[in-house]
Design a protein that fits this description.
The chain is α+β, with helices and mostly antiparallel strands. The protein has 3 helices and 8 strands; from the N terminus they run H-E-E-H-E-H-E-E-E-E-E. 53% of the residues lie in helices and 19% in strands. The longest helix has 109 residues.
Length: 241
């Protein structure tokens, strides 16, 4: 009998102990659940803020990426444009070099065909053509080929010096003409009125309305207007004194 009571008591104690453990586990679980709920309640605003910030960061990154891409496209466009300008500049430089080369060739062609023996008379250098008369235009062109111009007298002293070298039977073209306006005589060399004129008596008279170029007559050291297409001797004056 005592043995049976003891066994029953043991089973009761074991059963109580088991219930106690289950209650302890249940209480512990309840505590954990209560802690989880509290923690979640506390952390929820923070998590929502983090989520919002993450969305903003992602949006910001997208904008930055788009801006960066746009800037890269702009830079690429600028580089392409700069490269195109570089090509254009290079082409312009080459074109300029070509034009300079052509101009140099043209200048070479315009250099005197043959340097005539200019002689110093007074303070200047002259070439007096006595062998091959030309009209006024041809004479001006020939002087240009020699690197000179038709004589442009400055004063009586220069006329006296040059006249001493002339053939008195010949006439010599000067650079004076009134081709642009009748009676308004200008120097072909300077484009303005001559510094010095020494007209023969009764000249200029524009005889037949066809006399527009001026020659110097050796015999009298004076000037006369005459037909420009008439072949006469001429005097070239060097640009270099």
């Amino acid at each position: 009998m005592n043995y049976f009571v003891l066994v029953v008591l043991i089973f009761h104690l074991l059963d109580s102990f088991g219930h106690a453990q289950e209650e302890a586990v249940l209480i512990e679980n309840q505590k954990e659940n209560q802690c989880d709920a509290y923690c979640f309640k506390v952390l929820k605003p923070m998590l929502e803020h983090i989520s919002i910030m993450q969305d903003r960061w992602e949006a910001c990154d997208s904008i930055k990426l788009a801006n960066t891409s746009s800037r890269l496209d702009t830079i690429e466009g600028q580089l392409v444009a700069q490269e195109a300008r570089g090509v254009s500049y290079a082409a312009a430089i080459e074109e300029t070099k070509l034009k300079l080369s052509e101009q140099e060739s043209s200048i070479e062609k315009q250099k005197p065909i043959s340097r005539k023996p200019f002689q110093k008379i007074g303070s200047k250098y002259y070439y007096i053509e006595e062998m091959h008369p030309l009209n006024w235009y041809g004479a001006a062109h020939r002087c240009h080929e020699f690197g000179a111009h038709l004589i442009s007298l400055d004063d009586q002293r220069e006329l006296n010096a040059i006249n001493a070298k002339l053939n008195s039977a010949n006439a010599y073209w000067t650079d004076i003409n009134d081709l642009s306006e009748e009676g308004n005589f200008l120097s072909l060399t300077t484009g303005v009125k001559p510094k010095f004129l020494n007209w023969r008596s009764g000249e200029p008279n524009n005889a037949g309305r066809i006399e527009h170029c001026v020659y110097l007559f050796g015999a009298y050291s004076n000037m006369n207007d005459f037909k420009c297409n008439s072949a006469q001797h001429f005097i070239c004056e060097s640009f270099d004194e």
